[in-house]
Write a structure and sequence with these properties.
Length: 256
């Protein structure tokens, strides 16, 4: 069976991590398959991406059975396997929604946090497992968790290794919604379809602006907003949005 499966429903590409026996822990084959899936997501017909896990887990990070022997050169593995996929999610010019169906731990937590939005099943849990085995957070966890939670809470959580429930994750703002486990797939599909029907280029540029805002001055951010707003006014979806408003009808955005 493929370590990562992709399915298309209209303009939504669903990427399913598929090593359910180990709660979708990462191994080299899964990294490669995920890279291919994220490449597939770049197709213009895809306007929203949904990522989830097969079975009862979302993703529990590195497959620890590979650490039985000496860990080898972890830095090289991070650079070669993990970083390209995290960067690919951020570079993807469309929204990426994580439907967290079960434990998200270690680099699996980083992977969820690299996505633009997260919803969770009520059975999902969030575990910054790195510290529990004497590692530091990697794959962007310090970047994304700090951004989502603030430095003080990020430090407290990442150094505790504490398992967070879906309800707690919602209260902290880590996920935007918690749904009953049986309804997660349908709710995620509904949300992804809604995102796919929005002005895709406008969403892509909003994503870029928010990422850029993390490391810039107000002056630079104002300038980038002005540049991307100029680009936005040149899209078909801008013309359609204004026309629909003036004609008092629902807009039909095509993502161009
Ligand atoms: O190499 C590099 O490139 C470095 C990169 C490192 C990045 C990292 O991700 S480091 C962090 C690695 N992840 C962890 O440390 C998480 C370990 N897992 C857990 O702490 C727990 O499994 C959970 C809290 C996530 C979930 O607990 P629970 O009780 O729901 O499930 P479980 O019973 O522990 O696990 C179910 C099965 O999955 C079990 O196998 P079994 O007994 O049914 O045959 C368990 O061994 C397996 N499993 C869980 N996590 C991993 C795993 N197998 C391999 N690797 C795992 N990470």
């Amino acid at each position: 069976m493929a370590e990562v499966e992709t399915t298309r429903d209209g303009a939504v590409l669903t990427i399913t991590l598929n090593r359910p026996d180990v709660l979708n822990a990462f191994n080299a084959d899964m990294h490669r398959a995920l890279a291919a899936a994220l490449k597939e997501a770049r197709a213009p017909e895809v306007r929203a991406v949904l990522v989830t896990g097969a079975g009862r887990g979302f993703c529990v990070g590195q497959d620890l059975t590979e650490f039985r022997e000496a860990p080898g050169d972890i830095g090289s593995r991070l650079r070669g396997n993990y970083h390209p996929n995290i960067l690919a999610i951020r570079a993807l010019e469309k929204p990426v929604l994580a439907a967290v169906n079960g434990p998200a731990a270690g680099a699996g937590l980083s992977f969820a946090c690299a996505c633009d939005l997260r919803i969770a099943a009520d059975s999902a849990t969030f575990v910054p497992a790195f510290i529990n085995i004497g590692l530091v957070p990697d794959s962007g966890s310090t970047y994304f968790v700090r951004r989502l939670l603030g430095t003080a809470r990020a430090f407290e959580w990442l150094t505790s290794g504490r398992r967070l429930t879906a309800t707690e994750a919602h209260a902290w703002g880590l996920v935007s919604e918690v749904v009953e486990a049986d309804h997660l797939a349908s709710r995620a599909a509904e949300l992804a379809a809604g995102l796919a029907a929005m002005p895709t280029r406008g969403i892509a540029m909003t994503k870029r602006l928010l990422d850029h805002a993390e490391h810039t001055t107000l002056e630079e951010q104002l300038e980038l907003e002005a540049q991307l707003q100029t680009a936005a006014t040149q899209t078909n979806d801008f013309r359609e949005g204004v026309a629909a408003f003036l004609e008092k009808r629902e807009p039909r955005f095509e993502g161009s």
